[in-house]
Amino acid sequence: MRIIGLLLWAGAAMAAPAHSAVTATSDIGFATQSSVEIAAEPDAVYALLAMPGRWWSDSHTYSGDSANMVLDPRAGGCFCEALPNRSGKPGSVEHGRVIYAVPDKQLRLSAALGPLQSEGVAGTLDVTIKPSGKGVRVTMTYVVGGYVRAGAAALAPLVDQVLNEQLQGLKRAAEAH
Questions:
Q1: Which of 1, 62, 120, 166 registers the highest number of CB atoms within 10 A of its CB?
Q2: Residue 8 sits in a domain of what CATH number?
Q3: How many other C-beta atoms lie within 10 A of the C-beta of residue 173?
Q4: Burial of 7 (0-12, 13-18, 19+ CB in 10 A)
Q5: How many other C-beta atoms lie within 10 A of the C-beta of residue 5?
Q6: Is residue 168 in some structural domain?
Q7: Domain limits at 31?
Q8: Residue whose C-alpha is closest to residue 116's, from 28, 21, 36, 44
Q9: What's the structural domain count of the chain?
């Protein structure tokens, strides 16, 4: 099941537009970086980060519905997802934990995202917001290190594409009127 989930995750990732880059790889880790210009104010973009249900892709959730996701943008805050269950015993998953929060400027999470969660890795997802042109430039950097059974370098391009898809979703949500 884990292999099937990884393949589905990877296949969906390949459909994402490529406005990002794998910036480093090794046998024990990788780094990616994506950035996008958003025609919105820094406070609006930062506030939107705390509402992943409005911009995160449904296909990259455990429940199949990003509306089940929340992000508490303060140190110790959870980037979590409710897992509804018809039996009345709902579950949940922690995607990450906020480790640094500067409103309107930066949000950093400790997060082993997606299929990396079941591997022996640590990941840091850093989102910065800086004024630029008629809005802001949002840069998302993800650094992962540890043991990945499939090989860290092999997963890096797939993870990069998935994160770029989320960043594009943030842009669409922020610029929707």
A1: 166
A2: 3.30.530.20
A3: 18
A4: exposed
A5: 13
A6: yes
A7: 2-57+98-175
A8: 28
A9: 1
Nearest CA among 174, 169, 134 for reference residue 44: 174
pLDDT in tens, the chain (177 residues): 444 344 344 444 333 333 589 999 999 999 999 999 999 999 999 999 999 999 999 999 999 999 999 999 999 999 999 999 888 889 999 999 999 999 999 999 999 999 999 999 999 999 999 999 999 999 999 999 999 999 999 999 999 999 999 999 999 999 996
Whether pTM > 0.70 for this model: the answer is yes
Provide the 8-state DSSP code for 61: S
**In 12-119, where do the E strands start and end?**
20-26, 29-38, 69-71, 78-83, 91-102, 106-110
Residues forming a β-bridge with 110: 97, 124
